[in-house]
Design a protein that fits this description.
Oligomer: single chain
Shape: globular
Structural class: alpha+beta
Number of strands: 40
CATH superfamily of the largest domain: Alkaline Phosphatase, subunit A
Distance between the termini: 25 Å
Helix content: 25-40%
Largest sheet: 10 strands, mixed
Radius of gyration: 26 Å
Number of domains: 3
CATH architecture of the largest domain: 3-Layer(aba) Sandwich
């Protein structure tokens, strides 16, 4: 029997939390007992696109080129960037490409940066990122609410009134109430070498559903009917509070066929409050290669929705969401992924299965500060609740691992469980761009009441973990002469390392250096900023859009009245957990490290390694399955390096 490989990925699982919860995670515990466990050092910058690419290629960032969530486009201003969830931007060979060269077949399930596909014999489902797809989504998730007392951000207010003009109503104890759900449109997308592009202008959708609230037993309004027209008998679904619909198929005007689910999230008996959550409206096809396999998946196990597990995440930030709603979406996605893995491995020839879910990362971003005593979000009496929420999401991942192993693996299967990074709590925030603006290194002009970068007078551009010099010889509106390049870089580094938080007296930046001096971290090259920096554990680096949006007046007012420093709770936007730190950063029992477990034939049992690098994953898997690793692979085979 030939050996096979299953790699299950969970974005953001922290190794320290896995060890803390392992007695309550039977499937992951069994994997560790029967194999090898190690914390793994991510490739900087420590984020999702960078490290799922590192895992899949065995190459450092400087080699594969997927640096962060977006990279500047050559010949354009520094704020014009291409999204990196795009295999066309990857400069290294993927594991599945190397495997195909050597006669192996792969199945990729929602693996970030696997799309657009670069192989001919693989089955690829999704993969243009773990989030809602820009090319397969007609309309983003939406929350609709009717309330006399609440006002939510990033949600659609609807209004209830006495129902009029409905046909075939049943016998009722109270007058029926009605409202409408507007189902908005999206945009058509196309892939280019610079990432996805919008084709034509976005048009507002004109599709509406009719909604009816019913009280049939005299116990108050407890049923919600959704229909395409005002006819009770033409209903699409009828739900009670807390219930989800089945998948609803719909022809979206000017877009095509899509599908979605809705949940009645809130329904007061007196009819004064209603909350309805709708998932993204995604295309029914186009997300799978070969196309025919996508049709069979939809028919046999239901439609694929990339990022379904993250659909309600915005609600945790905007106030309308809940942990319950989020975990229900996670559970649905994990269930679909488990069924898809079982169906594909049972019906198609395969040697390698790579699959990924985005579970722990979202929770980390919203919970970790609530568990750190230095954070203003920390409340001792609430800590137990947050630990239970973290355990609950780990259990959902554990259940998925168990289902995949039971349905897809045999005694000749090597199973790997991997995360791309960890996370640590945030208790202080700094608006770093504000410092550059105050010093005149970044300048704006007013353009129709909004901010526009004054590139001809801007010397520096801050881009997450990077600072770029607006160099005349490189940028279309460069402001810095080549002779002043090193002088400006010195100034940037000096500013970063001499910052002092007036409250903590600490420097919020842990490391700053020229990009050619960061090769030791595996990061360098033309897609990396002229200066690379990492935040001190506990600090979050706010972006301009998070603080003031694109308002000119708000920017000027904010910088005059506010310090660039602040707590994680307060006037500045909240970020409760982050991984914008050095790969090995640690704080209060949490770390930035990734999780690695490996089990199966050829793997020693019950072993623990102090640390590996994520670049070591693919060389090790290649060794175990008997093929050569990808051409640009830079990691080591941990079996021969550490375990023999």
């Amino acid at each position: 029997m030939k050996k096979k490989i299953i790699m299950i990925g969970d974005d953001g699982m922290i190794p320290e939390l896995l060890l803390k919860f392992k007695e309550k995670l039977p499937n992951l515990s069994r994997l560790m007992k029967n194999g090898v466990f190690a914390p793994a050092m991510p490739s900087p910058p420590v984020d999702t696109p960078t490290n799922w690419t590192t895992i899949a290629t065995g190459a450092w960032t400087k080699t594969h080129g997927i640096r962060g969530f977006a990279v500047p486009v050559k010949g354009k201003p520094l704020d014009v960037q291409a999204e990196t969830f795009n295999s066309f931007l990857c400069n290294a060979e993927y594991f599945w490409e190397a495997a195909e060269r050597q006669g192996k077949k792969s199945i990729l399930l929602s693996y970030p940066t696997a799309w657009p596909f670069r192989t001919k014999k693989s089955i690829i489902v999704g993969g243009d990122g773990p989030f809602i797809s820009n090319q397969w989504c007609f309309s983003s998730p939406q929350y609709y609410y009717a309330s006399r007392t609440k006002n939510f951000k990033n949600a659609t207010r609807i209004y209830l009134r006495k129902a009029q003009g409905w046909a075939n109503l049943p016998s009722l104890k109270s007058p029926a109430l009605e409202t409408y759900l507007p189902l908005t449109g999206g945009v058509k997308m196309a892939w280019t070498k610079d990432g996805w592009k919008i084709l034509g202008k976005e048009q507002k959708g004109d599709l509406y559903y009719c909604v009816l609230l019913l009280d049939r037993k005299g116990n108050g309004y407890d049923e919600v009917v959704v229909s395409k027209k005002k006819d009770y008998q033409a209903q699409i679904t009828c739900l009670k509070e807390g219930e989800w619909s089945d998948w609803i198929a719909e022809e979206v005007p000017r877009k095509g066929k899509g599908n979605f689910k809705i949940k009645i999230d809130k329904l007061l008996k007196d009819g004064k409050e209603l909350g309805i959550f709708r998932t993204a409206i995604d295309k029914t096809e186009g997300w799978c290669y070969p196309k025919s396999v996508g049709g069979k998946l939809t028919k046999n196990i239901g439609p694929f929705h990339q990022g379904l597990e993250l659909n309600p995440f915005e609600g945790l930030v905007s106030g309308w969401g809940s942990f319950k709603l989020l975990t229900e979406a996670i559970k649905m996605q994990c269930a679909w992924m488990g069924r898809a893995a079982a169906y594909l491995t049972a019906n198609y020839d395969w040697d390698i299965l790579f699959m990924q879910v985005h579970v722990q990362d979202a929770i980390n971003h919203r919970i970790l500060s609530c568990l750190h005593p230095q954070s203003e979000y920390y409340k001792k009496n609430d800590a137990k609740k947050y630990w239970q929420e973290l355990l609950a999401t780990h259990r959902l991942t554990d259940e998925l691992v168990g289902k995949v192993i039971r349905n897809c693996a045999d005694k000749n299967t090597i199973v790997a469980f991997i995360s791309d990074h960890g996370a640590i709590p945030v208790y202080r925030q700094i608006f770093l761009e504000g410092e550059f603006i105050k010093r005149g290194l970044i300048r704006f002009r007013k353009e129709k009441g909004k901010l526009a970068v004054d590139w001809r007078n801007t010397k520096v551009w801050n881009d997450g973990y990077n600072c770029w010099v607006n160099l005349r010889s490189r940028q279309p509106e460069g402001a810095v002469a080549p002779k002043d390049y090193e002088k400006v870089r010195d100034e940037i580094i000096s500013i970063l390392l001499n910052l002092r938080d007036p409250v903590t007296k600490e420097c919020p930046v842990a490391f700053a250096a020229r990009r050619e001096d960061t090769s030791m971290f595996g990061i360098s090259g033309e897609r990396v900023g002229d200066v690379v920096y990492f935040m001190k554990p506990g600090y979050w680096n706010l972006r301009l859009y998070e603080v003031v949006g694109n308002s000119w007046e708000k920017t000027v007012s904010y910088l005059k009245k506010n310090s660039i420093y602040g707590p994680a709770k307060g006037k500045m936007p909240a970020r409760l957990g982050s991984h914008e730190f050095l790969p090995g950063a640690q704080l209060h029992g949490f770390s930035n490290k990734a999780t690695f477990i490996l089990s199966g034939p050829g793997v020693p049992k019950g072993k623990r390694i102090d640390a590996i690098n994520l670049v070591d994953v693919v060389p090790t898997l290649a060794h175990l399955i008997g093929i050569s690793p990808p051409r640009q692979s830079e990691g080591v085979n941990i079996i021969s390096r550490y375990l023999q």
